Amino acid sequence: MNSGTESVSLPTCDAFADEMRHCSLCPRQCGVDRIGGARGVCGAGAALKLFRWGAHHGEEPPISGTRGSGAVFFSHCPLGCIYCQNHPWTAGGAGEETSVARLSEILLDLAAQGCHNWNLVTPEPWLPAISEAVRTARAAGAALPCVFNTSGYALPRTCARFRDLLDIALVDLRYSGAKCAAEASHAADYPERAREFARWCWNEIGPLRTDSHGIATGGTILRILVLPGHEDEAVENLRWTRKTLGRNVHISLMSQYTPAHKALDRAPWNRTISENEFRRVTDEAERLGLEEGWTQPWGTATGDDELMGANMAPGPGTVG
User: Fold this and answer.
1) Would residue 109 count as lying in a domain?
2) Residue range 101-127, pLDDT digits in tens
3) Which domain holds residue 236?
């Protein structure tokens, strides 16, 4: 993984300047003038900012494949989770300002390395600039699909405008209730927003599609991270998924929750999940007939900020 970029003065993409002057890219709808120097609730200003990039082998098998996913970790995040493993750059703003042209060069380099896709990690604050960089890279001959790697706290109407960045949607469903969402991510509306976005992805992008080598070319994957003391949230999201989207959605059940950031001194967030908590979720997925996807073995909690989705094992049924 590489990190650090040349600091530059960056004008935001002209086509979206009005929107950035009254920012409404994410569900926060804070309306600040990022062009004029203000920063949104997410902490982002006008200049594109990223923390790290490189071939990443820790995602679900169709995303990482054999040559890795071309991950770009963007600074700032609209959600603000108290347990965020990536908090130095999502909450703390670590990273360097860079230009759209430089991001395009990075994307071309990831393609030249043989990565299977461009994995855009927390792209929401930077969609106009990323879209321009992707268009430039594709015009230069790179044809990788984009993975929209999101917490799920996103707006369908925004993402419809940046549909070129959503070949593959890697979408979290973390909470089913407003109380837990407010406590852990300062977003009581997360359940409504994330489910709305997941439904839009399913209808717009469709089920996971892979090539003859099992590498994702398009479609939707839903990630469900089991949280300590709140496995019922995961169970409710599985039930919602089965009822609303059907049984053919690829689900990634994740056991890797690790206390970090502000969660270190807050119970129950200051512990890993128990085996019984995780088993309750996996048993429910099996009961509901949600057989497409992967299950992360219990006991894979890690402090490594690059292992989101690592060590995935096949679920109880066919893996796409």
Assistant:
1) yes
2) 999 999 999 999 999 999 999 999 999
3) 2-314
Q: What is the domain-level CATH number for residue 12?
A: 3.20.20.70
Residue 162 lies in a domain: yes
Establish if 319 belongs to a structural domain.
no
pTM: predicted TM-score of the whole model, two decimal places: 0.91
Asked if the structure places residue 320 within a domain, the reply is no
pLDDT digits (tens, 9 = 90+) for 70-94: 999 999 999 999 999 999 999 999 9
What residues have CB less than 8 Å from 309, skipping those under 6 apart? 58, 59, 60, 63, 64, 223, 252, 254, 296
